[in-house]
Amino acid sequence: MMWNKNQKIFFLVSLGIFISASVLYLFVGPYRVGTREVLNGIVSFLTLGKGETPGARVVLELRIPRMILALLAGGSLAVCGSIFQTVLGNPLADPYILGVSGGAAVGAVLSFMVSRNVSGGVFLPLFAFLGAAISAFAVYALAGVAGKRSRGRLILTGVIVAAFMNAIILLLISVIPPGRIPGALFWLMGDLSNATPGSVRLLFPLVLVSTCVLLLMARGLDLMLLGDETALQSGLEVERFKTILFVVVSFQTGAVVSISGLIGFVGLIIPHVVRKFTGSLHGWVICGSFLLGGAFLIVSDVIARSVLAAGAMPIGAITALFGAPFFIYILRRRI
Q1: Does residue 147 register a pLDDT over 70?
Q2: Which of 23, 66, 138, 235 has an alpha carbon within 20 to 30 A of 154's alpha carbon?
Q3: How many other CB atoms are found less than 10 A from the CB of residue 212?
């Protein structure tokens, strides 16, 4: 791929924002730490150490996992949003419009009901992932007629499944034990506090592999920009290609939301910003979306942790403050 001037400027600015936000992130919090403690925490994370001081352990056990989770979640949701927008041919598509998030939410609330742990315990990531996978499969199966799935039918089916999942969530919350309701609601609004060194080490290879698979499929995605018929005439097996994309993106979304909770609008905002500077070729869009999506969620979490002195706001509320006006902007321009 050849770099033009806009692409060079975009990637340099995105990389600068990402690095600056990541460094700032490790210093922000109610417990003040110095540069030496931050460096010791980073070294301990890379060497599987335990940290020499209390400050280094705060960086090691709390801030580095949370920063990495923000990067992985923001980058993944942005990449998945860019893929859904191409596959569905709809600028308003993101991982949530197909009901994947609704399925994950149902699984999460069920985990709060069956687990003795008020935070959902080990059942939370498992149930959330299974809920996302089942919901994605239901959307894909219900949208198929005579072996074909039109873009409009997939979106309508996703909206219907999402509405159905929301109804199930309300029913489950009405019968959930009162002591577990705050944990369930906070998770539904997006929560990065579940990040641990173990959870991010588990999530990292899953995100890396699925993102690399999507990069390998970038050429086919570029053909799909020309329309299904043109892509088919160019030798692309469109329906099979869509099925593989759907499985990979649903897997990546389910893996992320099982740990981070429901964080909306990242997959809607970031791909549009990236395309503005890089063009529509998916090699650029996927790389740029991952970089800028991660930086966006890191900045959003810094804001969420800094607004309230007594604790952090749900990060989903911060992304919604950015995303709702952007949604209206896209709606007025494209629809």
Answers
A1: no
A2: 235
A3: 11
Helices 64-88, 35-47: crossing angle, 10 deg rounding:
70
Helices then strands, counting H and E runs in the chain, come out as 15, 0
Residues 6+ apart with CB under 8 A from 303: 318
- The answer to whether 26 and 64 have CB atoms below 8 angstroms apart is yes
The span from the CA of 189 to the CA of 187, in Å, is: 5
Amino acid at position 58, single letter? V
Percentage with pLDDT > 70 across the chain: 88
Q: In the 3-class helix/strand/coil scheme, how is 198-227 assigned residue by residue?
A: HHHHHHHHHHHHHHHHHHHCHHHHHHHCCC
The amino acid that residue 201 corresponds to is R
Phi, psi angles (nearest 5°) of residue 148: -120, 145
pLDDT value of residue 12: 85
Distance CA 294, CA 300 (A): 10
Cβ atoms within 10 Å of 159's Cβ, excluding its own: 14
In what helix (H) or strand (E) does residue 4 lie, and over which residues does it extend? none
Helix or strand or coil: residue 279?
coil
Q: Which amino acid is at 293?
A: G
